[in-house]
Amino acid sequence: MHITLLQSSLYWHDPVANRATLEEHIFNLPAPTDLIVLPEMFTTGFTMDAANVAEPMNLTTFRWLKQMAAQTGAVVTGSYVVREAGNFFNRLVWMQPDGQYDTYDKRHLFRMAGEDGIYTAGTRRIIKEWKGFRICPLICYDLRFPVWSRNTNGKSQDFDYDLLLYVANWPAARRNAWNTLLQARAIENLSYVAGVNRVGVDGNNHPYTGDSALIDFKGDVLFRHSDTEIVHQQTLSLDELRSFREKFPANLDADTFTLSL
């Protein structure tokens, strides 16, 4: 599968400018791709001003994602602020080229910024099948919680996913945690992990160093880039992943658990 990571700076609370910038990057991709990954809250930056920036589903940004997916023939995914039934969600949209889509609402809301007091937490993960891969997309702070990210529940031959995906606005002050945990999630879940973060400075003067990365199922860093905007494309091998899982079936010694929501 060909994956594209789009690490960009974001204009504060300016969806028009952000969509235009990201669209230019997408239209200038150096090669065809199967999956395009955008950062968390890619239309606004990480904001608690949900009342002024939220969009209903099926309007401007949703339609933009649909257009980008149709024109590139790739899945396009990232999160933005959505208003639905009187609630606000940090919502990832998984948009396929045929217009079929799914959504994931961020489960772990970042209380240190007050996100938990403004947004409604999600209650379910999604696993999407695409180009032979099973993919689990999550959002930023979810990275700190290994149970929610867990690939299997107990001694199982089966895996939930082959690629664990995190879209983020992860600040520079905690970049070591970002880099470390991406590798940890790959190792413990015997899975590829992709993390897409932003760069630049947001409206609250928080700097971001990006550090968007691709990690393989052994925890080895296939790609990482810091500080500047970049569009990175890479091919992931399902055969190599399956071969490693057969040779190193650590999942068969996993602990069972019950998840309480």
Provide a short characterization of the protein structure.
This protein is of the alpha/beta class and 261 residues long.
Structure description:
With 261 residues, the protein is of the alpha/beta class. The protein has one domain: Carbon-nitrogen hydrolase (Nitrilase/N-carbamoyl-D-aminoacid amidohydrolase). Helix content is 23%, strand content 30%. It has helices spanning 15-27, 50-53, 60-72, 146-149, 175-189, 238-247, and strands spanning 2-7, 35-37, 55-56, 75-84, 87-95, 101-105, 128-130, 133-139, 163-167, 192-196, 199-201, 207-215, 221-226, 230-235. A hairpin with a 2-residue loop joins strand 4 and strand 5. Helix 1 runs parallel beside helix 3 (60-72).
Radius of gyration: 17 Å
Overall SS class? alpha/beta
| CATH topology category name | Nitrilase/N-carbamoyl-D-aminoacid amidohydrolase
Distance between the termini: 33 Å
Features:
7-stranded mixed β-sheet, Nitrilase/N-carbamoyl-D-aminoacid amidohydrolase, 261 residues, single chain, globular, alpha/beta
